[in-house]
From TrEMBL:
Gene3D superfamilies: Endonuclease Chain A (3.30.870.10)
InterPro entries named among the record's database cross-references: PLD-like_cat
This protein's name: PLD phosphodiesterase domain-containing protein
Species of the source: Paraburkholderia terrae
Amino acid sequence: MKQRTPLYQHVKGKDFHTALASTYGIDFEAWENVALPRLQSTGCRNVLLLTDAGMMTHAMNGASTLPRKGGRSYTVNAISAPRVFHPKLTLLVGRASARLIVASANITAPGLAGNLEIAGIIDATPDLPSETSLVASALRFLRSRLEGQGSVVEHQLGRMDRQAGWLADADPADDLVLMQDGSAAQFLGSDRERGIGARFVQNVGPERVKRLIVLSPYWDSDLSALQSLIDALNPQQTVLLVDVRRKLFPTHGLTHRSGIGVVDIGTAARSSFVHAKLIIAETDDADHVLYGSTNCTTAALGTGTFRGLNDEASLYRRLSPATIAEQLEIGALVDSRPVPFDELPPQLLTENLKFDSLRAGQPGAFEVRDEILYWHTGNRVIAERVNVELFQLDNAPLSTTLVPLPSPASDVRRFRIEGDAPAFARLLFPDGTRSALACVTIANDIYALARESKGTSAEKAIERLTGSSRVDVYLLEAIQALALAESDAAVEHADSVADGKRTQDESEPDVAPETYQILSYQDFVRDARAHRVRGGEAPSQFADSGLWHVEQLLNRSIGMASHRTVKIEAEPDAAELQRLFRRGDETADPERKLNANGKSRTAVETGVADDVDDPMKEAELRQRFTSDRLSAIEAHHKYLWDLRKRKQVSATDVLRLRAILMLIATAASGKTPTDMLSEHDLNPRSRLILPVAGEQGWPRLMLNQLGAFFGTKNAPIEFLEIKTQESSLPSDILECWATCVWALHASHSAVDRYEERDDMRKLGSRFRILPQQVYHMLGMSIEQFAAEAFTRTYDCLVRHFALPMDIDPAEMQSRHERFLAGASHAQNQTSIT
């Protein structure tokens, strides 16, 4: 037989950004230690795993080690089918190429390297239309099985489409296609009306079949699927390749059947379990070949009048006559003497898994987005008194509290998470029974890992952003580097369109024009109000951008997001592979720790010396810190005035405004200039260098920024454009607006507290109109102000800065509520013009 290559060696992520892998059985240890590292270590980090719902229950109940990276490095999707979800597909997608692997192997240690399996590979590029249409057919099949798995999966698929528009735009092939090498092929999945067996017979057509060869580990007890093939094809000879010693073949089914020979493949397979599935119909004109996941059973292949019960996927190939046996080096085997009927052992029956009860044990899909747990129930009727239990990665119970929230749909339940994010979840029913465990998908981890970084500067910026929770001047440099990287990607994409590498005329890179739209901010909020959009929020504007890391750092700095990075594992060494691939039957650091002096890594970043014995040196460092920060604040103020002239404002500019306001806030003191200097004498390490009053007072600096963005003629917000496919405001834009509103009220509170000062009375005159301008230009409804992203950000800012800025949290809340009441009244009278 042909020398075997372990299947995992074909799973390599180079040139690909997305991987979809489907399997029936799952061994998480083999997947996470062999296949996944081969993908992610070479750049393929947008990964979706699809497995049968019943077998997922089986694995999570102890048949496999629990996943340690599921929901964080990749999404785990339990797929239900009428009987079983059985396809074994691996689809790798890149910007200019794709690879489809159609195989018989499950993602288990035996499947990846131990068993005798069969697989075929289709490589596609934009200039190979036939191959591309085959890959598009497989993608359509997998995509249809992922419906209802949650918004994170939708995001992953959307990212894939935007980064591989050539494939997203391709038409799937329902019929035979002619390949570049002159052969013909067809993807056969169980998503069509006719069964896979019937379509195989149709492709063979009226040609006289000289020999029918069938290789399968499992069969109907009465060989009904085999008989259906024989009746339809009428072969002169039928050869069944069977591993006789395994006793899985129903010998009794051969009674009263003639013209069928059983050839023992066990000797050629040596010690490996034969798990390959292969059907060959040899004619004078062609070899008609079917391989993939389909056993020779009615549930898999169907019959002429029955489409089957399983979800399956196979590939049909029409090759030159008398070639496939030679390619697989099985010619001598199929020509060998059949095993006499009386020497065939009787079938050894084993207890089958209880598919119905295993599927019923699935609790649904769980995902965490912005500290909200979404439970997708899968359209099942779930009692109200069902409790969700949460667990850590080591399967220890988690003390996190779940607070029920209003749900957007009948098949989705929402909870606010008060505590750490879970790794697993399960259901506790009123009668005391429990479901199986399910992986909880952490949206931010999946998004961060899948995000591409382009260019050395961008990569360095991301590395620094993910290694800190401190807001500093470098944040503005990171925004600039990442924005330039996005711009360079846009130019590169436009060049590829101009060179004819894309068939679709697009004005924006990586954006599907049929789903995304670009609106002015004013039109966006006007349309949202007209359609009575409630307090929901759309996905982040920066979810597909390196700028997402800026948003996350800003959130971490006020306690809104956990500091967690996903580690990319290197490929395992030979010893680890040997340990994992025990042959057998298929049936058989977050923020750096404080140093010894109690100082964090950010002490170096901000110029704080470890030795404070030299007051002169410390004062010099503080002066440099002050100069750098004031220079950055002033430069941004000038930048906002330049935006008035350019009249082009993007979401990046809104994020930059939020960063500047945070840069001011993190250096803000609640003390007057004199008292602040006295504080520096007592605490030389203090970096609260912006007093509450004076020329360098933080209220003045904040109001300068807000006034330049909201309160001038040709205010930049008037030219802001929003790119979205939703009717709700994106969550990161809501976070920016919350920061602006918080800065407005914090400044107002400080001015009122020191109104006896001349400089503060002068500053206070700006509040005669600026607050109304801010709320008016935001144009948001009361429901939008109540959106989770806005309220959470505002509340966190109030709590985080209350002490250093000496601001009363209750006062901050009441100020916002008073202006909301006024905004509500104004919106009943007019709209943004």
